[in-house]
Request: fold
Amino acid sequence: MELRVFDTREQMSAAAAEFFAERIKSKPNIVLGLATGGTPVRMYAELVRMHREGKLDFSRVVTFNLDEYVGLSPDHDQSYRYFMDANLFNKVNIRKKNTHLPDGMATDLDAMCAAYEKAIKRAGGIDLQLLGIGGNGHIGFNEPGSPSDSRTRVVDLTPETIRDNSRFFTDESEVPRKAVSMGIATVLEAREIVLIADGDHKALAVARSVEGKITPDVPASFLQEHKKCIFFLDRSAASRLSR
Ligand code: F6R
Reply:
């Protein structure tokens, strides 16, 4: 596991965007795994800026997002499809048909999850996966207790995640209780992984993931088993690491 620590979250986001841009330039038909949430917003804005300046072409890029809420339609402003369109896809020249998110409205969710895994395989697998991290160490919506062999499936959100994510909704009662998420095994199959984190509230989860024992209690600790995983952190998120 490699750690890159930056003074500010702006610097961290710019460095992560630069890393993704370099990978896109060296493989224009790259398959990216993408994340939503507060942390990647600045990084996506940087990628949009590079595209607008004519420095980055998304025309052959293929994407698979980590997760989606169950029961939110793509036009709901808290659905992850809406987030991705608003923060990245609608602002660059990516082909919409090359962007994939789990369908949280599918009538047969299990069949949809199996089809999602197949689609990732058919695309050749994920070259570069972006992750954020929850305060409880979750990656995607793989909450504590998620096994290392888990794959794309329906998951129950923990009370902590529901509370954390309620900041994006008018009321906590509106936060969906279930989501579809790639599994730990799905994530670990990516050829390269970048995890981004900023702020004091992530420091303990980061330290437990990097320096703690590998355990389903801290899903991000499984990243220690990956050969090419880099954590991009600001000083606050790195503050509880011993190194
Ligand atoms: C989002 C996702 C989540 C978030 C995590 C951190 O697609 O998979 O694991 O990355 O909850 O969220 P923020 O960035 O809002 O702190």
About this structure: The domain at 2-234 is CATH 3.40.50.1360 (Rossmann fold). The beta strands are 2-6, 31-34, 62-65, 67-69, 99-100, 128-131, 153-156, 178-181, 192-197, 229-234.
